[in-house]
Design goal:
With about 400 residues, this protein is of the alpha/beta class. The chain has helices spanning about 10-20, 35-50, 55-60, 70-85, 85-100, 110-115, 120-130, 135-170, 185-190, 230-245, 270-275, 285-295, 320-330, 350-360, 370-380, and strands at about 5, 30-35, 175, 195, 200, 210, 220-225, 250-260, 260-265, 305-310, 335-340, 365. The strands form 4 sheets. It has a 6-stranded mixed sheet. Helix 7 crosses helix 10 (about 230-245) and helix 12 runs parallel beside helix 13. The longest helix is centred in the middle third of the chain and has 37 residues, at about 135-170.
Length: about 400
């Protein structure tokens, strides 16, 4: 017997969910016929994930893939999924549609961009299409990218500034601190020889404290970003963090992107959207050339942090790359290697190069945007990195 939708009991709700997951068709087994909103949701899912090719699937209760290449059809579908599903699910479905059904070219049409739900992955796709983008689409694309950038800045900027300001304060060590400026951890370690067992206490002959960060530049940060296609999300996050760091007067920030060529985008750091549209995702990789350029810009090694964001698939001269890293560390530079700066965990990466960098004291690891301020704070203070 076929049952109709709009279930009211817990058992019926489970049945409804299974029906939406399984997609109907012979052998599906629930015996539940969908109607109303549920049927519309099933149709939106079927257009992307169904296995057939024709229309009419909604009437039969069976899914059939059918977004096709029609921009109006896809735009309507994008509107449907935003109506029926929460934003995180919409973003996943959009990403799947672009990857599974080859819809990238349709994103070059303004009406399509106005219909999509902006997220980091969409920005990465738009950046990869940047050179092919017609003028009629470019302003709409910039508006989409700016919306995502503003959301990321709102999420990340305050915590980043607070964390790094504290790190800069602590890095300014002084020998006669006021009570509120005493670094008790370092003071105790510096006076362990003065431990009195009978009193179970340490006599602090020498106080270690930290001053307050001044407006003068105290540290220099170089972000060196691999712009190969696999690093799209990392490029987006790194550009936002670069803009946040550049807004701090006590940190001089340089942002460099590279494939087989090297581009210095430091002058665009006041607007991360300009930085992103200055990148060109795809192409080869020459890490050695990029590090050579960064090395040439370092004037205060002991006060400099270099952050290489790359999957380490080197197309340049491997031994030269490692020698440059060793030379920078030998001069006092803090060197950080991030395999990715995104929420997606460690990507595929060159394990041999990662092991070689770790042997030089520059362990390579993936970093989430939420952890990045802590990583930078540790690098600024020259203490062990919080490797996940």
């Amino acid at each position: 017997m076929t049952r109709t939708g709009d279930p009211g009991t817990a058992g019926d709700e489970r049945l409804r969910r299974w029906r939406l997951v399984l997609g109907g068709g012979e052998g599906e087994g629930t015996g539940l016929a969908l109607s109303g909103r549920d049927a519309a949701m099933d149709g939106a899912l079927g257009a992307l994930y169904g296995g057939g090719g024709g229309g009419g699937g909604r009437d039969r209760g069976e899914r059939s893939a059918g977004l096709g290449g029609s921009a109006p059809h896809v735009a309507r579908w994008l509107g449907d999924i935003r109506t029926y599903f929460p934003s995180p699910v919409v973003q996943v479905m959009q990403r799947d549609a672009i990857e599974r059904l080859g819809l990238s070219a349709l994103l070059l049409e303004p009406e399509m961009l106005e219909a999509v739900e902006p997220d980091v992955h969409l920005v990465g796709t738009l950046l990869s299409l940047n050179k092919a983008m017609p003028d009629t689409t470019r302003e709409t694309a910039r508006a989409v990218v700016r919306k995502v950038v503003e959301q990321l800045e709102k999420r990340l900027a305050t915590r980043t500034r607070a964390t790094l300001t504290g790190a800069l304060d602590r890095s300014a060590r002084i020998s006669r601190p006021r009570h509120r400026d005493i670094d008790w951890d370092r003071t105790i370690r510096a006076n362990l020889k003065n431990y009195l067992p009978e009193h179970r206490t340490v006599v602090p002959e020498r106080l270690v404290g930290y001053g307050r960060a001044s407006r003068a530049v105290k540290k220099e940060v170089v972000l060196c970003i691999d712009q190969s296609g696999s690093m799209a999300a990392s490029v987006v996050y790194a550009s936002v963090f670069g803009a946040v760091l550049a807004s701090m007067r006590s940190i001089a920030t340089r942002l460099v992107v590279f494939d087989t060529a090297v581009v210095d985008l430091t002058e665009q750091l006041d607007d991360p959207v300009d930085v992103l549209f200055g990148t060109q995702l795809g192409g080869g990789t020459d890490i050695n050339r990029a590090l050579a350029y960064c090395q040439s810009k370092i004037t205060r090694p002991a006060d400099t942090v270099v952050v290489l964001i790359s999957d380490l698939y080197e197309g340049g001269i491997r031994d030269e790359m490692l020698k440059r890293v060793a030379a920078m560390k030998g001069a006092g530079v803090e060197f950080v290697t991030l395999l990715a700066l995104s929420d997606e965990g460690a990507p595929a990466y060159d394990r041999e190069h990662a092991a070689a960098l770790a042997a030089l004291g520059a362990p390579a690891f993936a970093c989430t945007p939420d952890l990045f301020p802590e990583v930078m704070a540790a690098a600024l203070e020259k203490r062990p990195l919080p490797v996940p």
